[in-house]
Amino acid sequence: MPDLPPAQSLANAAIWFAADGYDPAKGINGRRVAGESFLRGFFRHGVVDEFISLAQGSADHTAFAGTAARLGVIQPLRAVRLDAPQRIDPARVVYYPAPIHPVECWRRAPYGGAAWALCGITHTTATKAVMEAMFNLRAAPQMPWDAVICTSTAVQASLRTLMELAEEHLSVRFAGAVLPARPLLPVIPLGVHCDDFAPDPGLAAGLRARLGIGARDIAVSCIARLTPDEKFDPFPLFLALEAAAPQLAALGGRFHLLFCGQFRDPTWSPAFAEGARRLMPGVSYHQLDGGDAVERKSVLSASDIFVFPVDNLQETFGLAPVEAMAAGLPVIVSDWDGMKDTVTDTTGFRIPTEMARAGAATHISLRHLGGTDSYLQYLGQLSALTRIDVGRLRDALTALATDPDLRKRMGAAGKARARALYDWRVIIPQMQALWGEQAAMLTHARGNARSKLQPGRIPVGPAPELMFARYPSHPAPDATRRLRAVPLDGRPTVADTLTLRRYAASGRMVEGESRIEAVLQAYAARGPNGASEAEIAQETGLHPGTVARAGLWLAKYHFLEDVL
Question: Which of 297, 469, 489, 539 is 20 to 30 A from 337 (CA-CA)?
Answer without folding.
Answer: 297
